[in-house]
Amino acid sequence: MTETEFIDRLRNNPRPMVVDVWAAWCLPCRAIEPSLQQLAREFDGRVELLKVNADEQPDLVRAFGVRGIPTLIGFNNGTEVSRQTGARPLSELRALFETALTGRPPAPRRGLLPMERTMRSLAGLALLLAGWLAGPSIPLLGLGGIVLFSAIYDRCPVWQALAPRLSAAFRREGTR
Amino acid sequence: MKVNEATWDRIARIALGVFVLYLGWANVVTGGWGLALKIVGFLPLLTGLVGWCPTYALLKVSTKK
The domain containing residue A35 runs over which residues? Predict the structure, then answer.
């Protein structure tokens, strides 16, 4: 495919695309290849993955302004929306595919990490158990309840409804 | 507040905190020591839950790689 054909295909393709600029001798390119194949399957029919061999198509490399390989460029409606250079973990590569698909960078991750959630849940349950065995002890049971709630607060609909009002009330109080 | 405790460190602190609080609040240990355990147990529990140890921060050490 010539440079013009490729650019035409890119610009006139309404489907989101990810262009992978790679080379056979490039070790990081080989390192991310399994992840790219996995994402190509995951986004099959939604995001098209196009490979550009940097050695065989230097004009395209120049046209894309690529300064290092591997470079991945996400296109949405023919417009570049995201770019990554170098070997990246699967999560970052997936974010690039998602950006190409939606045209917007993915929303920043909110809420607790799974490890943090597990740790707080187990600590809360351990405190509840200790509180129950200790009599029961109201302070330990209360503390266990608070710790357990801290493990799930970001998924609690009541908290989600109350939190913005509470923070707004505190802000108003602070500005008085 | 940057986390300066490794996961194993946090788990050990939480387990220690729960155990010490149990000893205090279940009256396994009574008297002055019991009262001390009721209070002191909160320290490892809280530092384990938060993942940040002020002593580590003062000494500029960290168990987290």
Answer: 3-102
